Amino acid sequence: MRKALLLIVLLGLSGAAAGQTSILGKHDADKPVNLSADKMEADLKGKTVTYSGNVIGVQGDIRLRADTMKDDSPNSKIYINGKVVVDSPATGTVTGDNAIYDLTKKFVTLSGHVVLHKQGQVTMQGSLLTVNMVTGKATLGAAPVAATANQAAAPGAPGGRVTGVITPKSQTP
Fold it and tell me: How much is the pTM?
């Protein structure tokens, strides 16, 4: 199920960026994925499905929220746009303006105002997060993101730099 794959990929983002050994942590990818939205529109000829309006995906204790999600089967890509939020009690929260999962290359890209937050320990900000799902390597950058056909241009972090705060565990409440 392509939707389950997308959700699983996005759920692993915060773990990868925070340096966990497994990109998915202890997440059970075999659990069912529940999707809901205000509207679902299918283009049978174009082989696309678009969910819009308060899109929510839940698998186990992990939750994805966004304004829209489009499964573009002919191009093997899934586009998620507008206030993308992935919450995981185990790995934290990742937010961004837009996300693209390239199923062929196995790359996830979050763009816009990207924030990675692990409760009480790490907060990192940038404008472009890429995750190689094969190697588990994640890169957070801050260069301005160019506009594409499916998303608007997004500004980089102030000064074009990645910023963050890391709190030692001894100071974590």
Answer: 0.72
Tokens of 93: 């929260």
| Homologous superfamily, domain 2-171 | Lipopolysaccharide (LPS) transport protein A like domain (2.60.450.10)
Task: Read off the DSSP letter of residue 138.
Answer: E
CB proximity list for 59: less than 8 A, separation 6 or greater? 4, 7, 8, 11, 27, 28, 29, 31, 32, 33, 34
Listed by start position, the domains of the chain span 2-171
Query: Which residues, given as ranges, of the chain have pLDDT below 70?
Result: 1-29, 143-159, 170-173
DSSP 8-state assignment for residue 146: P
List all residues 6 or more positions away from 127 whose beta carbon is below 8 Å from its beta carbon.
111, 112, 113, 114, 141, 142, 143, 144, 145, 154, 155, 156, 157
pLDDT, tens digit (0-9, with 9 covering 90-100), for 74-88: 999 989 999 999 888
